[in-house]
Amino acid sequence: MNKIKLIVILSVIGILVVAGYSIMYFTKSRQKTAIIEIEAVPTGVKILINNRGIRNGKSKIEPGSYNITVSRDGFETQNKSFSLKPGEQKYFGFALKSNSPLTKNWYTKHLKDSSVAEGISSKEFDISTSQSAKDVPLINDLPYLGAGLEFSIDYGVPAPGESADKPAIYITSNTPAGKQEALDWIRRKGYDPNKLSIVYVNKAPQ
Questions:
Q1: Going by C-beta distance under 8 Å and a sequence separation of 6 or more, which residues neighbour residue 90?
Q2: Average pLDDT over residues 43-59
Q3: How many whole angstroms separate alpha carbon 8 and alpha carbon 14?
Q4: Where are the domains positioned within the chain?
Q5: pLDDT tens readout for residues 107-124
Q6: In sequence order, what E strands does the chain have?
Q7: 3-state secondary structure at position 144
Q8: 32-135 has which CATH code?
Q9: Of 34, 119, 189, 195, whose CB has the highest number of CB atoms within 10 Å?
Q10: Which pLDDT band holds residue 31 (cuts at 50, 70, 90)?
Q11: Quick one: pLDDT at residue 29?
């Protein structure tokens, strides 16, 4: 085999190898169709996702099931399990609580971390409220005060023993007639009270 043929063969092999790696790389990149955003404090926390290190911020990952662990010496470790579908995006905030006298006043002394922790709480509240509105659309029309102040309708934490994923509907009235009017109003809005988690509350005396 002369040198020219050898050079040609080696060149072809090199091209095939590079092409193979390129195909593998772009295929793997296309598989990362989900996005996760992590925000965690205090400064210096260690974040693991399925036991692999990851940083604060947004990251593209493959759809599937995951577990996040956030830790730092002097603070309580937090874990969260979740699943992501193709194209889905999720946000997770972690503000670790102190479990040591050395870090007891951490957020008081570290104002930047304190500000981030407040932002995390606000974002989680907004996300929770948005999800609740999707799960129980009726809450978009609440609170509602009945005519004559006979009843009021609002929403809040689930009743004991009920699913923690959906808010409960709270009907406040002291009379059976008031409660019935509240249920009739819910029906007029297009919802079946029997399919809602309803908590009845007596009105406080005036």
A1: 34, 35, 36, 37, 82, 84
A2: 94
A3: 10
A4: 1-31, 32-135, 138-201
A5: 999 999 999 999 998 888
A6: 34-41, 46-49, 52-53, 57-61, 64-71, 78-84, 89-95, 144-145, 152-156, 168-172, 198-201
A7: strand
A8: 2.60.40.1120
A9: 34
A10: confident
A11: 46
